[in-house]
Design a protein that fits this description.
P-loop_NTPase, 13 helices, ATP binding, AAA family ATPase, two-stranded antiparallel sheet, mainly alpha, DNAb Helicase, Chain A, 60% helix, DNA_helicase_DnaB-like_C
């Protein structure tokens, strides 16, 4: 059975579409066999310079000018290129989707293996490295993030129909209990969106957020309030005042029965 590395090298040489989609994601260290790695290096160097895949003959010429190859190394790499060419002539062209999927998994597996190996070496101090142990999480995180996904942004022409459907999609919104805010937001805040309340110092941003939190709680919605300024008890106090519909001063005089009844009502919603 043909090795995946051979299929990848063959596709990089003879399938320009595949090469353009995948070459930026392959790294030298993913190819563990010396001959595979050397051939890949020459393919990548040629492609980066001329923006198209090299011929087998061009790769052989470039290999012949390298100073780091012994006669045996050169012979091995030329034999590999010959095998790749013969395989291309004998076999049908692989399905591009399958090839991309397998190549992506190949890169992910190799990246993770190399990251784990490097991390163990750093941890055991058995391998010279410019990284310290504190870099291990980043090394592993970078390896786990390897992906061929390049879908970034919006193509104005290609995505025109998706945009047309979006215009007619009815969004699920969280309404305000303030009519004016519903008016200017066309019915409230769309779910799964980030919204920012901006205002000057002392204008009432925290007051507004506490009011919003109380309103959402009263509608049986989950609320996470993160504060980096006020104590959590003060935030909860303002939310309580909104829920009880009393002033902060009146909240302190509120009978326990009234307070617990309101809280229990919220719990049971």
């Amino acid at each position: 059975m043909e090795r995946l590395e051979s299929i990848i090298l063959r596709s990089l040489l003879y399938n320009e579409e595949y090469a353009r989609k995948t070459l930026p994601f392959f790294k030298d260290e993913y190819f563990t066999q010396f001959t595979d790695r050397v051939v890949f290096q020459e393919i990548k160097k040629y492609f980066n310079k001329y923006s198209n895949p090299p011929t087998k003959e061009a790769v052989i010429i470039e290999l012949g000018e390298r100073n780091d190859l012994t006669d045996e190394n050169f012979q091995s790499t030329t034999e590999l290129l010959k095998e790749v060419e013969e395989s291309y002539e004998k076999n049908d062209k692989e399905n591009l989707s399958w090839l991309l999927e397998r190549s992506e998994k190949f890169c992910q597996d190799k990246a993770l293996y190399n990251a784990i190996t490097e991390s163990i070496g750093i941890f055991d101090e058995t391998k010279e490295s410019s990284f310290t142990k504190s870099a291990i999480p980043t090394i592993l995180s970078d390896a786990l993030s390897v992906s061929f996904d390049v879908h970034i942004g919006h193509d104005y022409l290609d995505n025109s129909m998706e945009r047309f459907e979006f215009y007619r999609r009815k969004e699920e919104k969280i309404p305000f209990d303030l009519e004016y805010f519903n008016k200017i937001t066309a019915g409230g805040l769309p779910r799964k969106t980030l919204n920012i309340a901006l205002a000057g110092t002392g204008i009432g941003k925290s007051l507004f957020m506490c009011h919003m939190a109380a309103n959402c709680l009263s509608e049986s919605l989950n609320v996470l309030y993160i504060t980096l300024e006020m104590a959590e008890e003060r935030i909860a106090e303002r939310i309580d005042a909104n829920l009880m519909n009393v002033t902060l001063d009146a909240l302190k005089e509120l009978p326990k029965e009234v307070y617990t009844k309101k809280i229990d009502k919220l719990k049971n919603k």
